[in-house]
Amino acid sequence: MLDEKYGDIKKVEEIINFTYRGLTLLIRDTNLGTLESKYEVGMILRELGFTDASLHKGGLVTNHRMAILSNHYADLQAYEYGTNWGLCVLDQGSYFKVLDRYTIEDKTQITLLHLPENDWEIFGECQVNIDPKLISFVRNDFEESIILPPVTELLTQQWLKRCSYPIGMTDEGVCFPLKE
Prior knowledge:
21% of the residues lie in helices and 26% in strands. It is an alpha+beta fold. A five-stranded mixed β-sheet has the order 1-4-8-7-2, with helices on one face.
């Protein structure tokens, strides 16, 4: 099936290399409530709006952390005026693959891999052997971060409101369509 769409294994390798090269861990803390269970490992999501996230890591004041692994986001820190959020924005219409859901006590982290806009479908059809290493890295980071105090700048109502909606679905838990 991959051969039909992508031609040969070289094209698949290019897509995978593009997706995984130079990943950065971005953080988005929120309260998902019962929507947490909608994030199933392996599922592909599409977010219709822009996605705000932070480069700053610390403890959580919310119950959920969206850990986003990306190498194609806009680093907007230079345009912040006194907020110091470590603001990064992922483009509207971004695709994500749920790599992991990990709970420690009453805090849950959902790890999302930011997929390429045009070749996202391949990730629904294949497994990549680096994923377990990434999951282990992100889990370790979560374990270390969860005991830290929260980042003060990420406690503002303005920031928490920007991160309050779920990624890839409505507030009612209906996933956005993957295709237009």
